[in-house]
Amino acid sequence: QVQLVESGGGSVQAGGSLRLTCAASGYLYRSWYCMGWFRQAPGKEREAVARIDRAGRATYADSVKGRFTISQDNARNTLYLQMNSLKPEDTAMYYCATLQSDTCPESVQFYNYWGQGTQVTVSS
To answer: pLDDT for 5-14, tens place per residue?
Structure first.
């Protein structure tokens, strides 16, 4: 049983920073997997923000490269998203998701487990 719980969202002014945390539990810790952060703004499709595989290889959306950093602890029980230089267009509900795979596809359709989401609001 895999459970994902996001936290760390909030309201921040443009240029500010937030760190999102995803606490994971279950068989995820003993299996091949990838984890990722996704976001969805009202009226828009859910999109991949950053993904990281078991080997620690990270992939970022072009819109967040150089500003966001995805990381995980050594036990792979916690996933982070450090968000710097936030922009109003970063405003969205952010979700943590995982897939039991050794690769991390971009499409949200491949991910089997999702957290409840945490809201990030960036004001100008």
So the answer is: 999 999 999 9
